[in-house]
Specification:
The complex is a heterodimer. By secondary structure, chain A is an alpha/beta fold. Chain A is built from 15 helices and 16 strands. In chain B, helix 1 crosses helix 6, helix 2 packs parallel to helix 4 and helix 3 packs across helix 4. The chains are: A alpha/beta, B alpha/beta. Strand 9 of chain A pairs parallel with strand 2 of chain B, so a sheet runs across the interface.
Chain lengths: 427, 306
């Protein structure tokens, strides 16, 4: 299979193109824009059939995406960060419509302060929305993830929208060798979308997304949607097996790297997990039994596969590239909840917050995380959650604060003297 | 349109399509207009709805519509219409749907969405020349939540968030002009109490492609505080007194479809409604009544000088 150098964004666009999507409602936002520019170029040149429309907001973009999927066409869209949050009302809404389509999110830290680089607070804000979530660690996974996502979304036992996540900058703008699957193989893997009876046509009137009155019908439909999301677990593994047969790449719900005999396991998701993989190799060379567990699928949550992979480990170091303010790391919380009370679960979970707003996580930090976790295993006591942040970083921040202070004092003396002179006039 | 199918009252459709037994209030002017509009538009329609009173038309497992329905959210019904229209076009282009299965896409929202939260999505739909009909039932406040003032509320009206002796201090936003400034295919004001004027406009809108924007003033017994039996009379007075101009915009020009002669004073319209009772009791507020009258007079002076 030929490989070509693609950014994560262009790999996402190729996923949509190979999936023969009919409709692309779009809205630009850094670092996602290259996806819609690439697709727009293909649609304009006729290389790709389909229709692309730029809406006036992500809220409208998601509404149009859901409405088009509910009318019976295959829909693709992409966003990031503030855009995902601006669309949040519609994320919950269109998943409730059971409108199957694929939305790529290019992760980027959330405002305030406003920033451009990656962390996972944006995608995790959509955690409970009813969108299923596939998290990618490299550009090949982005392309593959889009194809897997359509199979998952459109499965009659699922019928839910799927988010495919890639990290801004680290994947969105990084070129990696990507194998472009043969379109004929993709067509075998992903047949045309069959909307079934969920569509709009004059000959078969349909009321979709109607109101309900009272908690009983509401509970019924919400729980039914939850069960559909849970169905997606078995469907995903079946589809991933099929994918592996056709394309030769393993895409299981969790990636377990050297966990077999590991006593310490790193647990994290996204592109930064490739840094952890590198650290695992270095630590193994140093004689430490360390592994990495990375969920590709976060919703539905592959709790059994995770517990199975962690059986035998003494300590799990959870590295969260997100921060639930006032609580801590989201993955740490979820992993703890899913392991608690399970026979053979690792006795120690440690929690590290790192990579916020694209902040690097260095090899030395991974080594220290392993050491801290090993120490916790030895003492039977997990330390409090820790932010990965160095003294030199703190020193740089202090310098910026000092500059800000000087600038304030230098540029505001007139305002201060003005106020005091007004005071004297009144006196 | 000289060749219009609907010229006289007896030309109005005699079959009524919208089902009965909806949870709308008795005397709802919005429902009255919707009944009349649906009869002209017919069953090959999909209504794309935003949060408002009429969201309660389709409550599981019932609907009064013989055609289709999609509830979206308060801010983005026109974007929902975009998705449905584009998807229908794709299905038609690719022969995945027979032409007779095509649908007229109709956005249905109240003034809360149309004048405020949904305005950006509406503007975008007009920018993109979306082929759809927008029907705003304008009851001049957030009616479904108990008539708080909106930017469609008229000056001086008491609402549940403007209870003071001077009522709502702002002035009703001119949505017709804002819409017309986008130069869509068609903009019109209608009211259910003038069914012939309404039917002729909807019939015209039906034959045009592009954005067709309709605002129906919707007398509201609960929100405006009057006996439901007065809805038609209040609607007629809104037109006669000149408070609600019946007009349309096409090809860059505004045409008034009814120019009221010998306009009765606006107070005849105001005094039937509890929301304006404070202008008359315990003492007449001459200043505010005169202000409201002069604004109406000024509007019609500009019309006659055009």
């Amino acid at each position: 299979m030929d490989q070509t150098l693609l950014t994560g964004n262009v790999a996402a666009a190729w996923g949509a193109r190979l999936a023969s999507v009919d409709y692309i409602p779009a809205f630009p936002i850094t670092p996602q824009t290259e996806i819609i520019e690439t697709l727009g170029g293909w649609v304009d040149s006729g290389e790709m059939p389909g229709r692309m429309v730029t809406l006036e907001s992500e809220h409208s973009m998601l509404t149009a995406a859901g409405a088009a999927a509910a009318t019976g066409v295959r829909v693709f869209s992409a966003t990031s960060s503030q855009g995902l949050l601006h669309a949040m009302e519609m994320l919950y809404t269109v998943s409730g419509w059971r409108a199957p389509f694929v939305l790529v999110n290019v992760s980027r830290g959330l405002s305030a302060p406003i920033t451009l680089e990656a962390d996972h607070n944006d995608i995790l804000a959509a955690r409970d929305s009813g969108f299923l979530q596939i998290h990618c660690a490299d550009c090949q996974e982005v392309l593959d993830g889009v194809l897997l996502a359509y199979r998952l979304a459109e499965d009659p036992g699922v019928r839910l929208p799927v988010l495919v996540n890639l990290d801004g900058f680290y994947l969105s703008f990084t070129r990696e060798p990507v194998a472009l699957p043969d379109p004929a193989d993709v067509a075998r893997f992903l047949p045309p979308f069959d909307p079934g009876n969920i569509r709009f046509a004059a000959s078969s009137p349909e009321s979709q997304a109607v109101a309900v009155l009272g908690g009983s019908p509401y509970s019924y439909f919400r729980y039914e949607t939850h069960l559909a999301a849970q169905n997606a677990l078995a469907v995903y593994e079946r589809v991933a097996d099929e994918f592996e047969t056709l394309f030769g790449r393993q895409r299981h719900a969790v990636e377990a790297y050297r966990t077999g005999d590991a006593d310490i396991v790193f647990y994290m998701m996204g592109s930064f997990a490739t840094k952890a993989r590198e650290a695992v190799d270095r630590l193994r060379e140093a004689g430490q039994k360390v592994g990495l567990l990375r969920p590709r699928l976060l919703r539905p949550f592959p709790a059994d596969a995770i517990a199975e992979a962690l059986a035998g480990a003494q300590g799990v170091a959870v590295i969260d590239q997100n921060l639930s303010l006032g609580q801590g790391g989201v993955l740490h919380t979820e992993l703890g909840a899913s392991l608690y009370g399970r026979r053979g679960a690792p006795p120690i979970l440690t929690s590290f917050i790192g990579g916020l707003g694209g902040r690097e996580i260095t090899p030395e930090e991974f080594y220290q995380i392993a050491a801290v976790t090993r120490e916790a295993v030895a003492t039977g006591q997990a330390p409090p959650p820790r932010l990965l942040y160095t003294e030199s970083e703190l020193r740089e921040i202090r310098k910026l604060q000092a500059v800000a202070q000087v600038e304030r004092e230098e540029t505001t003396p007139l305002r201060w003297s003005g106020e005091s002179s007004r005071g004297e006039d009144q006196a | 349109m000289s060749d219009a199918r609907i010229n006289r009252m007896k030309d109005l459709p005699s079959t009524h399509l919208l089902g009965t037994g909806t949870p709308m209030c008795s005397g709802c002017g919005g429902l009255e207009a919707l009944h009349e509009i649906y009869d002209v538009l017919g069953e090959k329609t999909v209504f794309v709805n935003a949060a408002g009173c009429m969201t309660l038309l389709s409550v599981y497992p019932f609907t009064p519509f013989r055609g289709s329905w999609l509830y979206t959210a308060m801010a983005s019904a026109p974007a929902g219409a975009q998705g449905v229209r584009d998807a229908l076009d794709i299905l038609l282009e690719q022969d995945r749907m027979p032409p007779e299965d095509d649908l007229q896409v109709v956005v249905l929202t109240g003034d809360g969405s149309a004048y405020g939260m949904g305005m950006s999505a509406t503007s975008g739909a007009m920018d993109r020349n979306l082929d759809f009909i927008y029907l705003c039932y304008d009851n001049e406040g957030y009616g479904n939540t108990g008539q708080q003032y909106s930017s469609a509320t008229p000056h001086g009206a008491i609402t549940s968030t403007s209870r003071g002796s001077r009522g709502y201090p702002g002035y009703k936003k001119d949505l017709f002009s804002i819409w017309a400034a986008h130069d869509p295919a068609y903009v019109a004001t209608v009211i259910g109490s003038e069914p012939l004027d309404l039917a002729r406009k909807i019939e015209k809108a039906k034959t045009i492609r592009g954005p067709r924007m309709i605002i129906a003033l919707a007398p509201c017994p609960t929100g405006w505080d009057y006996d439901p039996k007065l809805s038609v009379e209040i609607g007629k007075l809104a037109v006669k007194t000149g408070v609600w101009p019946l007009k349309e915009y096409e090809d860059g020009a505004v045409t008034h479809t009814r120019i009221p002669r010998n306009r009765p004073p606006v107070e005849e319209y105001l005094k039937l409604q509890g929301r304006f009772a404070h202008l008359f009791e315990p003492a007449r507020n001459e200043e505010m009544i005169a202000d409201i009258q002069s604004r109406v007079d000024h509007y019609w002076e500009r019309v006659s000088s055009d």
